[in-house]
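Try this one yourself first.
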């Protein structure tokens, strides 16, 4: 595994760790990635330079005061095999900022599902980020009422390869979501879910 450990106790610190090699190609596989911080109100960024597969859910920062844990896809794919990406529910723990600094290439996070509903402060999904949900039977929640943003040109793609016959759900109240693609199976939408005016919705043949 890989540990990003920020020992700076100053408020509003910022740290970036690059992972993968620019000339590497292929996919880098690793165990658990840990965001660990002693600061308050700061930001830690994992910057991808190649596709990365991890066999565990990344550990978020835990501290008094909100920490923002950033995954900058940089035009690559961050894959969590057989795991969901979620935020910890307790106040004072880290929130996710999922971004893609490479405007020319989509950045993809693949997981069995997504729960970005907590804690206070709210997680964010940035421009040109594709959340790829790969399992049926999941409750996907992209926001809560406590903050965070979802870019209009981000995408939630439901393309289950396991438990395809079991429906999943998607909710995001009160945030609007970006593009929505249902490539297989059944995705039930939560009450009051809305998409941005500039976004698109597509449903493949045989999917609902």
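Now uncover the answer:
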């Amino acid at each position: 595994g890989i540990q990003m450990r920020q020992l700076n106790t100053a408020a509003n610190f910022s740290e970036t760790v690059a992972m993968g090699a620019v000339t590497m190609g292929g996919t880098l596989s690793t165990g658990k990635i840990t965001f660990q911080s002693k600061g308050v109100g700061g930001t830690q960024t994992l910057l991808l330079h190649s596709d990365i597969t991890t066999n565990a859910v990344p550990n978020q920062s835990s501290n008094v005061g909100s920490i923002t844990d950033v995954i900058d896809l940089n035009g690559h794919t961050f894959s969590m095999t057989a795991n969901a990406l979620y935020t910890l529910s307790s106040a004072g723990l880290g929130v996710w900022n999922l971004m893609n600094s490479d405007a020319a290439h989509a950045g993809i996070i693949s997981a069995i599902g997504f729960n970005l509903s907590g804690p206070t402060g709210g997680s964010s999904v940035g421009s040109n980020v594709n959340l790829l949900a790969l399992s049926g039977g999941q409750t996907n929640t992209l926001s809560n009422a406590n903050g965070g943003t979802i870019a209009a040109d981000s995408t939630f793609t439901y393309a289950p390869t396991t438990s395809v016959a079991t429906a999943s759900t998607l909710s995001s109240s009160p945030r609007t979501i970006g593009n929505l693609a249902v490539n297989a199976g059944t995705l039930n939408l939560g009450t009051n879910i809305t998409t941005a005016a500039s976004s698109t919705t597509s449903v493949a043949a045989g999917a609902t």
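Discussion: The CA atoms of residues 34 and 201 lie 35 Å apart. The chain is about 0% helix and 40% strand.
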